[in-house]
Amino acid sequence: MIQLDNISRRFRADEVETTALADIDLTVEAGEFLAVMGPSGCGKSTLLNIIGTIDRPTGGIYRFEGKDITKAPEPQLARLRRDRLGFVFQSFNLIDELTIRENVALGLAYRAMGTSEKRDRVTAAMDRVGIAHRKNHHPHQLSGGQQQRAAIARAIVGDPKLILADEPTGNLDTENGAQVMNILTELNAEGATIVMVTHSPAHADIAKRTVHMLDGRILTSARRAA
Amino acid sequence: MIGTSLLTLYRSLTRHRLFALLNIGGLALGIAVFIVLSLYARYEMRFDHFTGASKLWVVEETYTRPGDPVQPNPNTMGGELDQLKGDFPDLVGTRYKGIGAIVRKDREVSNEDSYAVDPNFFQLFQYPVIEGNPTATLADPDGIVISQKMARKYFADTSPIGKTLDLDIGGAVIPYRVGAVIKDLPKNVTYQGDLFVRFFRERFSGSWYDHWGSTEVATVLRFSDATAANAFAARLPDFLQRHAGPGHNFSARVADMYHQNVRPLQDMHLTYVGDRTMVTTLGLVGLLTLLIAIVNYVNLATARAGLRAREVAIRKTLGGTRRALIGQFLFEAVATVAIAALIGVALAEIALPFVNAAGGLDLSIAYWGKGSIVAPLILAVLGAGVLAGIYPAFVLSHFRPASVLASARAPGGGRSGARLRQGLVIVQFAIAILFTTATAVMIAQARHVRHADLGFDRNGLIVVTSFSHGALETAQRHAILAAFSRLPGVVSVASGNNAPGSQDTTNANTMNRPEASERKPSIMWVEVGPGYFTTYGTRLLAGRLFDKGHRAADDTAGTDRHPVNSVFNASAIKALGFKSPADAIGKTVQGNGPQTVIGVIADQRFTSPREPVRPTVYYLNTQRQTAPFASVRFTGDAKTMEDRLEASWRGIAPNVPFAARTVNANLYDQYYKADTQRSRLFTIGAALAVLIGCIGLYGLAAFDTSRRTREIGIRKALGASTRNILTLLIGQFLKPVLLANLIAWPLAWLAMRQWLMDFDDRIALSPAYFAAASLLGLAIACITIFGQAFRVARAEPARALRDE
């Protein structure tokens, strides 16, 4: 599904250049559950952002489902995100002004779809993560776990093929973290490909494969024993 | 997507109430000012827009001798149309003459707005007809067309058609038969009237009918288009030379001293350049005020952009394209402006009665039919919405989701955003200071014309305008003056055919000094009765006035004696080339005959402050002046005096309605009112523009200071005092206001210099107005910012740091 060849990402601020990613080669097959680990600043989130097309590499080639999208125009990438990707963030990133139901519906905002179908999908997504009873609440009225479940509902409402999760349990306690991991595992079991950045070895163990990064490079890639 | 956008907008407005109040409130005020001033400009610019008006041209005449008024006179002699038709048989034209008729009904007498017109008048002036046929009515010499108002007044609820109305015209009572009723005319029609009778020479004209250069009637011509009108105008000089040249009024080449032109009827209302400029300026004030409100929106939206960065990032990760986001933010801007527009319309509705009262107008908002505000308002909302939203939309949609989501702090829009906001504040305050300077100059000029030395004492003086009515006999006039002079409180009484605000006669002769024959200025002549100058408190510059001791020598009544003893004003003495007033005393001047200068008085400004005082010569006539006004110098209350004068009048001339006003009221109505009202409108617009600018500045200050809470906490922890912080914050916001002066001053100087040039009697454009406006702008800005800055500056540093 994803093929990164020799991907690099450099940031330039004034006279200082920082290399966030260097010569990354990574392949993610459809249906995989990949965990990305490494210390802070090693480039995990940058890698996730590039996979999610919300950041562009400064070198290398990025193929998604066999197509080179490294230099694809922004509208094409927006369509890709809209139709194929789902994002889950550590800090949830729900919009405070909208209710939970409206936040989840935002995942379909840019799709041409009938109102009733949208409504059904939103309801299904909220049911799927067990948040439907708080649909009329605003984010600040919910616990962190509930907010993250709402964010997952928003990510899956469009039925994405690839879910990108950036430390989805980072702001949660153990119990809520476990709940979120259960949902991600179920989604993976249902066919979704998941790439998850995490600091938690326990949560990385749930993934089928784990890559370790350091200083913008992939050090190891190991599959979980069956 | 629109649904979500609307929802987000609604929630954002209700959650950030101060922001919503500032943004929508400012826009609503801006829109209200824009609506009211647009209505005003439209009203003033759309005089005479009835059916067929665009094909009408008015003949106007101008004397070009030194001393003649520059402003063309929109009237001609009574018989010009007859002569024009002789040379141009296909010409279609009509005439309109005020006749000052008195309506007699039972024992009541009333002055009504009455005119004599040609029978085809209503074919050219297609005023809406309620009942009857105006053209057929005027075919009858005793037919009359009346307005709805007159129909109600004199015939109550019954149909007036076929009924009789008695008109006293110059003392002769004529029963007129009502043949048609027209709709009451709106105020923005030049040729007004309530009663229209047929014009014919025998009844309404005299020896002046064929006197070229006289101003008896308005002659209005119909042309198919401007080309035809211009082609006709080009043939006027030859026509005038044939008909008015040697053997007629003018003894030489007519074009050397007199010419005629045709002016479109629809251009008649704002004939002074200054009037037109002022109306355009007021429309511009409305537009600029709206612009200031739009700038507020842009400033607040870009300043708050950071707060929405996360939303933008999320929308982008969910597949929102930049175009979709631009569309969303533009939609939000248009929706915000639409909400503000609804409130703005409501505010305009509330304000209109006050504006109408202040400006003597009848402006109203039409929602349906012709002149409806709906379509232009929708266009304005879309235009203003796009203008307000386009930059914030580009700024907001530009955020890169990866960097926004990775950052714990919201982006602030960057240096370029801050610079733009500062630039926009400079523009806002430049406009505000420009308006404030202009307001100060206008108020000072209005005050100047109300209080300036006019060459006579304007206070404690009443002009009895009905004294000139043609129905009064000379003996009655003498009796009235005698009766007035006996009334308690009356200091002196006089008559003369010239009075402040009522200068109806403008007769002039060319004159020269025998030793300087090349100078032949045009000098207006005025006939005055005994005590005229004493009553006016005229200032004598040299020689003497007409006095009792010289009455026999000075009086021109019933004698052809020459030279005539004459009093000249200072302008006439200057025009004639005398070195000084004293130099002129005893000298002979040649006019219609020789005349001796016995006295020189200061110029008396009886007309508009825009026009120069005409060179004038005064003759004493103790018996009868042409169309004279009575002037009464009095002490005590003006209303009481007017009542006494009226009671006295009724005892002598019960058949002529009494009409009198104080000189101040007469001058105000005739010459100061329009400028004063426009100045008031300008002041209101300018004050609101400044207020809206302050709303924006307050919003920016509130936002900026809250963003800098942590920085201020650190500064205070490092030893900065509250005063240091206040100086820092206020200084930062005052910089753009100070810079705004650099833009405002030259613009204000140019604009107000141009405006003042239109006045002959004007104030000097002192730097004090500019300094005062700038200080006021700075003070207002200081007050606006101070509250916010003080709150943040006083906060405990520990608390500020904890907040972060």
Automatic annotation (TrEMBL), chain A:
The keyword Transferase does not apply. InterPro entries: AAA+_ATPase, ABC_transporter-like_ATP-bd, ABC_transporter-like_CS, ABC_transpr_LolD-like, MacB-like_ATP-bd. The keyword ATP-binding applies. PROSITE patterns: ABC_TRANSPORTER_1 (PS00211), ABC_TRANSPORTER_2 (PS50893). GO terms for molecular function: ATP binding. It comes from the Bacteria. Keywords: ATP-binding, Nucleotide-binding, Transport. Pfam families: ABC_tran (PF00005). Residues 2-225 form the ABC transporter domain. This is ABC transporter ATP-binding protein.
UniProtKB/TrEMBL annotation, chain B:
It is found in: Cell membrane. Residues 497-512 have a biased composition (Polar residues). Residues 284-397, 685-797 form the ABC3 transporter permease C-terminal domain. Signal peptide: none annotated. It comes from the Bacteria. This is ABC transporter permease. It comes from Stakelama flava. Residues 497-518 are annotated as: Disordered. Residues 21-236, 430-605 form the MacB-like periplasmic core domain. InterPro entries: ABC3_permease_C, MacB_PCD, Macrolide_Exporter_MacB. The chain crosses the membrane at residues 20-41, 278-300, 329-353, 373-396, 424-444, 681-703, 724-748, 768-790. It is a multi-pass membrane protein. Keywords: Cell membrane, Membrane, Transmembrane, Transmembrane helix. The keyword Transmembrane helix applies.
